[in-house]
Design a protein that fits this description.
elongated, 15-stranded antiparallel beta sheet, 257 residues
């Protein structure tokens, strides 16, 4: 006969359990590379996550506009290098609006009918009519060095300030004529040279608000020009043309102070 102690009833204590939503919450945590995740409004994101935030490489598609961003993310915001594209309203084909650097998912603004982020750093922006800008940005505005390709074939390359040529730059026209010199507020301003390569002439002088105020016009490459003037420019008879130009420059500088 077994000792009485072995006949004692066995007491089992239930294992502590946690609410099911704890387990569901753990499974719902998004971290690392995940398949496409859909938002309630229909937006979708495919890429990397960190602590339930988009972080790393990923692609976002907005259902409302059809726009696509593909690139870098940091803690739920577009940050780093990426491209932004929108569908053409007629052909439905995607067109790149901007490719370049992003910072802190800055709020968007409209540019000639297209959506473009408030950008920082260097990037390329595509506009309607095959226009595009390659260069530096500050606070969503073209500022620093950049190159702009216009619809008519003109190209401006140089310094920018708040979306306008400002500083030193060169504008090359479709017929290869070009202006090299100073700019202010998007207009030729200060010392500059205008090369009329089609006629074989060069104008060097002082500009103010796109208007040449004083300068010298000479023949320049006239023998190779496709449409030279009928007669060459007579020789300037001024005893000191450089002095005259220097005096005009001094007057211009005084007017700016």
């Amino acid at each position: 006969m077994l000792p009485a102690a072995n006949n004692m009833p066995i007491v089992k204590y239930p294992r502590a359990t946690e609410p099911l939503w704890h387990e569901w919450d753990r499974k719902a945590q998004k971290c690392g590379l995940r398949h496409t995740v859909y938002a309630v409004n229909g937006d979708q994101y495919t890429g990397e996550w960190l602590d339930n935030l988009k972080h790393g490489k990923g692609t976002q598609v907005w259902k409302c506009t059809g726009a696509i961003y593909s690139g870098d993310w940091k803690f739920g915001k577009r940050d780093g290098y990426g491209s932004y594209s929108i569908p053409d309203p007629v052909t439905k084909e995607y067109k790149k609006v901007y490719t370049g650097w992003w910072k802190n998912d800055r709020k968007s603004r409209l540019l000639t009918g297209h959506l473009c982020a408030a950008l920082q750093g260097y990037g390329v922006t595509f506009y309607a009519g095959r226009k595009r800008y390659e260069g530096e940005w500050s606070g969503g505005l073209r500022s620093g060095w950049g190159r702009m390709y216009y619809r008519d074939g003109s190209i401006y390359e140089g310094q920018w300030l708040e979306n306008k040529p400002n500083g030193q730059g060169m504008l090359r026209l479709p017929n290869e004529n070009r202006y090299e010199g100073g700019w202010k507020g998007g207009k030729k301003h200060g010392p500059g040279k205008f090369f009329y390569l089609d006629k074989g002439q060069l104008f060097e002088g002082i500009w103010a608000a796109d208007i040449p105020k004083c300068g010298i016009l000479i023949d320049f490459g006239r023998d190779e020009a496709p449409a030279p003037t009928q007669y060459p420019i007579p020789k300037i008879e001024l005893a000191d043309p450089d002095g005259v130009l220097a005096e005009a420059q001094a007057m211009f500088d005084d007017s700016q102070n």
